[in-house]
Design a protein that fits this description.
With 179 residues, this protein is of the alpha+beta class. The chain has two domains: 92 residues; 78 residues, General secretion pathway protein M, EpsM (Gyrase A, domain 2, 2-Layer Sandwich). The radius of gyration is 24 Å and the shape is elongated.
Length: 179
């Protein structure tokens, strides 16, 4: 933030800064919710189109099915591809609803710099910066209380000094029941 001359009393200045931070936080929150909503809509439409096209593809294959081996191999290859694709779509974890829970428990003085999903083990990796290490400890405790989180891993450098700095958390989700 740019340095500025401020003639306000300290109590009014603090209230003004809170109001500015609250306004910025609400703006960011609305953008995150809008982005997550758009992602969910796009995923829903994509899955609907995939299901429709899969059905149309299967119907057209059945109409034109010959008994020769080339056609049978093509059908077999296509079915294997569709099964792998369907498995990938069904087994992919949607993080959009879960990220909202993480943002709700995040202390106000923490800024997230990166959120990544690791496909190999389904973990969510959160990186950010904070002015105090006590906020990192508080954030970890809050994350551990979220119902869908099985474990929270934090490297030791998250707690190395009392000064400000970056942090990383790896969130391991509980297994979700298949529908």
């Amino acid at each position: 933030m740019k340095e500025e001359i401020n003639l306000l009393a300290p109590s009014v200045k603090t209230a003004r800064n809170r109001q500015i931070l609250w306004s910025r936080g609400n703006y960011i929150w609305r953008r995150v919710v809008l982005t997550l909503s758009i992602i969910l809509i796009v995923l829903g439409v994509g899955y609907g189109l995939f299901s429709r096209n899969k059905h149309l593809f299967e119907v057209s294959l059945m109409k034109n099915l010959d008994t020769d081996t080339k056609t049978q191999q093509a059908v077999s290859t296509a079915n294997e591809f569709l099964k792998r694709f369907e498995t990938r779509v069904n087994d992919t974890r949607l993080w959009s609803p879960d990220i909202v829970d993480v943002l709700k428990v995040m202390p106000t003085d923490i800024q997230l710099t990166e959120i990544n999903a690791r496909e190999s083990d389904g973990a969510l990796i959160i990186m950010g910066v904070t002015p105090t290490r006590s906020s990192v400890v508080d954030f970890q405790r809050r994350l551990e209380k979220i119902s869908w989180i099985r474990a929270v891993e934090a490297p030791l450098n998250n707690f190395a000094t009392e000064s400000s700095g970056s942090f990383t958390f790896t969130l391991f989700p509980k297994e979700r029941k298949k529908i």
